[in-house]
Specification:
Elements (H helix, E strand, L loop, with lengths): L4 H15 L4 H12 L9 H14 L3 E5 L5 H10 L4 E6 L2 H13 L6 E5 L2 H4 L9 E4 L6 H11 L5 E5 L15 H15 L3 E10 L2 E10 L1
Parallel strand pairs: 1-2, 1-4, 2-3, 4-5
Antiparallel strand pairs: 5-7, 6-7
Helix pairs in contact: 2-5, 3-4
Bound molecules: 3,4-dihydroxybenzoic acid (DHB) and magnesium ion.
Length: about 220
């Protein structure tokens, strides 16, 4: 196969068929956010499943998400924490939060999810710590702020997942003037250098093109 974006997407669809399949609640959540015109930047189905597995593999019961969007990834996380588990998810845009609230409730996991509406930088200082897994998927310009809070609100053993660290390879551009690339590079640098983290990052290709995800442990 030629390694084109279309081929990446086709292979990703095959993997999603195998490992996700039909999922009416998730399909409804996507339909609702598409209908509302939200950007189509939610995690891919196979990445949602990865988040779900990471929560269960790590035994996380308290999960923090920064960047709810329409609640698609939130549903994956909330399903994983179990009946006694909780997800706190932060969303800056009230309209997004309303769509997410409805989709999360319709998915049957509403009692596990608290949506905090506001900018991460404003909401994070108000949270009580003890999070076992933190998923950062918000404005890339603030990645280092979010990583700092992830360490402060976590504990040794907390799993941190940082989305969108590939950016079509633009992460190698030291002189980039794209704020998202600058923020992504800063986040990766922090994960590499900050002694609170031990981390790695993987590039991905698939439904969302050429991107990547970083995984870190709070040590
Ligand atoms: C963008 C943000 C995301 O969270 C994502 O998964 C893809 C793209 C963006 O802002 O460009
Ligand atoms: Mg993302």
């Amino acid at each position: 196969m030629e390694p084109t974006p279309a081929a990446w997407a086709a292979a990703d669809a095959h993997l999603a068929d195998l490992f996700v399949g039909d999922d009416p609640a998730l399909d409804s959540a996507l339909a609702a956010q598409r209908a509302a015109g939200l950007p189509e930047i939610e995690v891919a189905p196979v990445a949602g499943k990865l988040l779900n597995l990471l929560v269960r593999m790590s035994g996380a019961r308290r999960v923090l998400e920064i960047g709810t969007l329409g609640g698609y990834s939130t549903i994956w996380l909330a399903r994983a924490v179990g009946d006694q588990g909780r997800v706190v998810t932060i969303e800056a845009e009230p309209a997004n939060a309303a769509i997410a609230r409805a989709s999360i409730d319709a998915a049957g996991v509403g009692a596990r999810v608290e949506i905090r509406v506001g900018r991460g930088a404003d909401v994070l200082p108000t949270l009580v710590g003890g999070f076992d897994l933190v998923f950062i998927d918000a404005d890339k310009e603030s990645n280092t702020v979010y990583l700092d809070w992830a360490a402060r609100l976590g504990h040794p053993g907390t799993v941190v997942v940082l989305d969108n660290v590939g950016r079509e390879g633009e992460i190698v551009r030291e002189d980039s003037d794209d704020p998202k690339v600058i923020g992504t590079r800063a986040g990766l640098r922090m994960l590499a250098d900050d002694p609170r983290f031990d981390a790695t990052a993987l590039q991905t290709v698939g439904a969302k093109g050429w991107d990547g995800v970083a995984l870190a442990l709070v040590v």
